[in-house]
Design goal:
The complex is a heterodimer of chains A (114) and B (140).
Chain A: H1 3-9, E1 13-16, E2 27-30, H2 34-37, E3 45-49, H3 54-62, E4 67-70, H4 78-86, E5 90-93, H5 98-107, E6 111-112
Parallel strand pairs in A: 2-3, 2-6, 3-4, 4-5
Antiparallel strand pairs in A: 1-5
Helix pairs in contact in A: 3-4
Chain B: E1 2-8, H1 17-28, H2 33-53, E2 56-64, E3 67-75, H3 82-86, H4 95-99, H5 107-114, E4 117-123, E5 127-135
Antiparallel strand pairs in B: 1-2, 2-3, 3-5, 4-5
Helix pairs in contact in B: 1-2, 2-5
The chains are: A alpha/beta (114), B alpha+beta (140).
Amino acid sequence: MKLDEITKILNARVICGEENLSREISHVFASDLMSDVLTIDSRNLLLITGLTNVQTIRTSEMADIQNIVIVRNKKVTPEMSEIAIDNKMVILECEFSMFRACGILYAAGMQPVY
Amino acid sequence: MQFEYFINGGDFSKAGQASSQFKKVLQQLNVAPHTIKRIVVALYEAEVNIVAHAFKGKISIELQPDLVSMLLTDEGPGIPDIEKAMEVGYSTASPKVREMGFGAGMGLSNIKNNADLLEITSIVGKGTTLKISVNLSKQE
């Protein structure tokens, strides 16, 4: 599923990376624990997290994750989006809880990492 | 090629900058993406450990055609029981570190999983040294 379709079904707002919404996503991982994020295979991955600090973006950068949904109506800081733009990441903000966002994407056919 | 980065303990706003800079170097040198990920995940975990636990630290990296050797030395509390620190789930991280999404007791074991060699030496009350090596010759 492409990121622009994911944006629609999550009723999300695009914070940065609008030019990359045609990226195809096959797998989703949801966690607020960056230590876990650093252990996964990240190809065609979308990360769902409610953790909004610079380390969310740094962790994604190191783990080669380019697509992030921020849930629970948390807001992306300017510092976060600056590093994200630098790394060609797409960041979406979503008002839904993590469970709801995961449920919608799972029902839409997204695969778990494990 | 040699690279040096200096890390301040407690400064989470800058944690990961050294790893980020070194990742860009590896990309410019066309190192395989899978290998870059192993190197920078190990380096980032170790960099975050310095920020989380030490007063200050230094990262020295030697990049050879077939090997990257990373030496991370810090001035800090040291690790009293390295074997215990390697156990998944064991952590002495502060609530502040946990708020940043770390401190789950997975860092050292994740470094070990990504590296071809990990050596830890530590003196309690003085500091800790990590030597991390990753072979560059491995193919995807």
